[in-house]
Amino acid sequence: MNMLIYTCVFCFISLGQCLSQIPTSKVASGQIIRYASFQSTYVQARNIDIWLPNGFSQEKKYAVVYMHDGQMLFDSTTTFNHLEWGVDETLGKLLSNDLIQNCIVVAIWNTGNSRYSDYFPEKPFLSLSSEDKEPILALGKKFIHRAFRNQQPNSDGYLRFIVKELKPFVDKNYPTKPDPAHTFMAGSSMGGLISLYALCEYPKTFGGAACLSTHFPGIFTNDHNPFPKALFNYISKKIPPKKTHLFYFDYGTETLDSLYEPHQIVVDSIFKANGYTNSNYKGQKFEGENHSETAWKKRLDIPMLFLLGKR
């Protein structure tokens, strides 16, 4: 497990160091419009890539998928690990086969050192006792990319950035359908966690979330870890209305994903207890799959069909 932590440290530091060096992504379908160093009063400036599908037209209206870890989504030749989600290939194919509604993707880059702070759900963390916060804060003392400024996450600020600054910009400059029924979140690992948190915090802004390999533990162990319980208590109180929201969760069984099944079972039970059914909630297990862009790429069509499929 220590080797896994050091590997993650290297990866996220590399992301931060390379942020300004990565060229514009090349895509197999559609086109990318990049807004370099998009400014915010709530978070560090970061690149924003907007993917527009083939045949994009100002005369049409588009659903929007806001996706985290934006530099990992389109072009493996520009990523630190030479892997990608293949978002352009997957959505391009689904659109060409008329299986999903017209959509664009807003790919929000992480900034390396602030990623953990931006994505870690703030209110569940603040509900912990000082003693229970210590295992999480201890990581920040060892690894700068897991440090919280002022001893707490900035995920509330990150979501304010998206809701109050980024979304208004996108809706003003692109022909979107701005209502929650056509506004979605998607991410993996900590990106899955912040996608879940976003819908709980802003249920009148986002209508659905795709949470792949959601990192429910917050840290790298389930042993003596108080955070999942705090998160589940938060979800139980803040779960969005079942009639207007869609949730997709999945996980594999290898590497980091091997930690997730007991937590996903609890989350499934919370949603079912609140009236969610197969029509608006999907949870899937992928035996033998690991925690990587390669794994998420293979199954990305499933959550995209679930969120964007024509109903």
Structure description:
This protein has an eight-stranded mixed β-sheet with strand order 1-2-4-3-5-6-7-8, sandwiched between helices. The protein has eleven helices and eight strands. The chain is globular, with a radius of gyration of 18 Å. The termini are far apart. The chain has helices at residues 2-18, 87-96, 115-119, 122-126, 130-142, 155-173, 190-201, 227-238, 261-273, 293-299, 301-308, and strands at residues 31-38, 46-52, 63-67, 103-108, 183-188, 208-212, 246-252, 281-286. With 311 residues, the chain is α/β, with parallel strands linked by helices. Helix 8 (227-238) runs parallel beside helix 9. The longest helix is centred in the middle third of the chain and has 19 residues, at 155-173. Helix 8 (227-238) links the parallel strand 6 (208-212) and strand 7 (246-252). The chain has one domain (2-308): Alpha/Beta hydrolase fold, catalytic domain (Rossmann fold, 3-Layer(aba) Sandwich), CATH 3.40.50. The model is unreliable at 1-21 (pLDDT under 50).
Share of helix, binned: 25-40%
End-to-end separation in angstroms reads 44 Å
Q: Give the class-level CATH name.
A: Alpha Beta
Q: How is the CATH topology named?
A: Rossmann fold
**Per DSSP, what share of the residues sits in E-state strands of 2 or more residues?**
15-25%
Q: What class, by secondary structure content?
A: alpha/beta
Oligomer: single chain
Task: Kindly provide the radius of gyration, computed on alpha-carbon positions and rounded to a whole number of angstroms.
Answer: 18 Å
Let me know the average pLDDT. Answer: 92
Supply the CATH architecture. 3-Layer(aba) Sandwich
Encode the helix/strand succession as letters: HEEEHEHHHHEHEHEHEHH
Q: Spatial order of the strands in the main sheet? A: 1-2-4-3-5-6-7-8
Low-pLDDT sequence parts: 1-21
Which outline best applies?
globular
- State the major sheet: 8 strands, mixed
Number of domains: 1
Beta strand count: 8
- The CATH homology group name: Alpha/Beta hydrolase fold, catalytic domain
- SS field, number of helical segments: 11
